[in-house]
Predict the structure.
Amino acid sequence: SQELEQSPQSLIVQEGKNLTINCTSSKTLYGLYWYKQKYGEGLIFLMMLQKGGEEKSHEKITAKLDEKKQQSSLHITASQPSHAGIYLCGADRGVPNTDKLIFGTGTRLQVFP
Amino acid sequence: AAGVIQSPRHLIKEKRETATLKCYPIPRHDTVYWYQQGPGQDPQFLISFYEKMQSDKGSIPDRFSAQQFSDYHSELNMSSLELGDSALYFCASSYSRLQETQYFGPGTRLLVL
């Protein structure tokens, strides 16, 4: 089973609308990363959250990590076509000497004019 | 700002051939990670290197090997290629390891015929 679940799997919104993507883990997250991927291209780093209750914003994107550090949300305000892509959450389990990030299933976002 | 460089960007090989993928990390980053992303899948961690030594190992087949060189660039060597090896291969780098943000390259798309 997938360790990180993202919802929704896909999202189609009209330009200017707000939207939220969720990332849920059954285990405590030590580091939660949000990336954006254009189809077939590299992952672009958006934000990293480490502390329970932490919230970060960059331009029109806000990411939050809940107090229990098991769920994160990514909120986009006044979406634009440039926001379209696949959003992936990645988690660091904090296991000693483990480098790997575990990724969620991804959320495909389409924004139409 | 300089990003992670990967070469080649696209590669077509036949079954049982070998392939070498190269990764040049962001300057001053000493940790390199390799991920494999199959079609419609999330990235899966293969292997990582810190200061030219293997630091973590994931689901990397025995047919694959990798190393990090003195200039911190890394190469992923893939032998006896199989159809199932067709995927997008990402390299990421970070400044030191463990809970440091991993910055991804654009990926190498490998197609095995």
The CA atoms of residues 2 and 101 of chain B lie 15 Å apart. The mean pLDDT of chain B is 94. Chain B has one domain: 5-112. Chain B touches chain A at residues 4, 31, 33, 42-43, 45, 48, 50, 55-56, 58, 88, 90, 92, 97-99, 101-107, 109 (CB under 8 Å).
